[in-house]
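Structure ticket #2291
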Amino acid sequence: MKRDNRMKKLTIMALVIGLAMLLSTPVFAYELGIAWINDYPGAGNDLDYCDDNAIGFKNELSWYSVDYEESDGDVLESHFTDDGYSLDKPDVSFQCGHSITHDGHKAIYLNPDSGNQYVEWDEADFGDYDLEWFGTVACYLLNSDDDNYWIHATDGGLHLFCGFKTTQAQSPSNLMGKKWGQYLDDGEKVKNAWFHACDVTQTSSKQVNVITYDDDCYDDYIHGKGGPACSDPTPQATFWTWSHTC
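Resolution: structure written out below.
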């Protein structure tokens, strides 16, 4: 009888310990994606800190699982245009690399090893799968002449597209992506965190831009910090843009 009671106690203790371990194990309910390109044709075109920028963003949101991560020639055009393994699959994604003028408009410039070197405004498809928020530091991508084209990249339901109207600067101590992730983790609104990151990493001559079809998305927080304030936007004849000087 005593042996049976001892076994029951041991079984109960094992169950309690197991439950405690299960409860203490992080559960990654939300997902992020990062892409960076440092390597471009010609040494003079290379970027030095896109890896630090993107990885810094990931590390600041370490409680998010990583659903997409690629670099240099492994960042493919399809990762911006398809619903499978792509930047569109996570909840929030960050991309670092050059832009380039192609067919009269700014495009995201890829490493030529990827096959197609350009992602154009009418090819990118964000929000069609799960993505709500996308940030990129590609220079001039959301300038005043091109933001009305790149808004169509959000036709799938992206809440907020965050980018630069001007050039941007990077250094080991000034990493836009890392700071964006930090301020998102601090509980700032998605748009405000982008502006805040600009303020602390860029000079006063730089400008950023955030665009959306639905101004209710202005009040979005990332999942786990308050969540979206809007439903997935649908394409409209007009769109909203918020610009900020750093």
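Closing remark: The chain has one domain: 31-245.
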